[in-house]
UniProtKB/TrEMBL annotation:
Residues 43-87 are annotated as: Disordered. Keywords: Ribonucleoprotein, Ribosomal protein, RNA-binding, rRNA-binding. Pfam families: Ribosomal_L4 (PF00573). It comes from Dorea ammoniilytica. NCBIfam families: rplD_bact. This is Large ribosomal subunit protein uL4. InterPro entries: Ribosomal_uL4, Ribosomal_uL4-like, Ribosomal_uL4_dom_sf. Forms part of the polypeptide exit tunnel. GO terms for cellular component: ribosome. Part of the 50S ribosomal subunit.
Length: 206
């Protein structure tokens, strides 16, 4: 089992924590990680793009000039794709980009992403983030003390003060243990998680 240092909110080391290998020490499956990211981005797409083909553009029923003898190329309609205002060749139509991943694949992908962060020493555990009031400066100072920028802060359920305090910091995103996902883990340089959040993740995914 991997051991990681545990820090307090001032950025000082206060102990160590043993991570469960079933979650934070699996074999990294790059294919599943890639698939999970593509799945998440695809499921976000609206797919509402639309352009008209030549059959949908109005007008153009009359042949613009006779077939021969004008010196122009032959034309059958002013709504052909080569005309200004004509239809679009192979025009995009509304479609659903989403696709399904199996639950086991999603879980394996998340475990792989978390393991990769631990192996890169970019997974930091905080003993607790207990704020008596909503104060952005408290979270900003914590991250400064940890020498962290562009971070995903994973909080246990119910820690509303910390969640709102981090909301206004650039390049920082908060996530609860049930909303953590592969895309965010990879997008942010460092994952900062509370001890309670790590234990909750281990309970769900171990």
């Amino acid at each position: 089992m991997a051991n990681v240092a545990v820090y307090n909110i001032e950025g000082k080391e206060v102990g160590t924590m043993e991570l469960n290998d079933a979650v934070f020490g699996v074999e990294v499956n790059e294919h599943l990680v890639h698939m999970a990211v593509v799945n998440q981005l695809a499921n976000k797409r609206q797919g509402t793009q639309k352009a008209k083909t030549r059959s949908e553009v109005s007008g153009g029923g009359r042949k613009p000039w006779r077939q021969k003898g004008t010196g122009h190329a032959r034309q059958g309609s002013t709504r052909s794709p080569q005309w200004t205002g004509g239809g679009v060749v192979f025009a995009p139509t509304p479609r659903d980009y989403s696709f399904k991943m199996n639950k086991k694949e999603k879980r394996a992908a998340l475990k792989s992403a978390l393991t990769a962060k631990v192996e890169e020493n970019k997974f930091i555990v905080i003993d607790e983030i207990a704020l008596s009031e909503i104060k952005t400066k408290s979270i900003a100072n914590m991250l400064k003390g940890l020498d962290v920028s562009k971070a995903l802060v994973v909080l246990e359920d119910g820690n509303v003060n910390a969640e709102i305090s981090a909301r206004n910091i650039a390049d920082v995103k908060t996530a609860k243990t049930n909303t953590i996902n592969v895309f965010d883990v990879l997008k942010y340089n460092t994952v900062v998680a509370t001890k309670a959040a790590v234990q909750a993740i281990e309970e769900v995914y171990a």
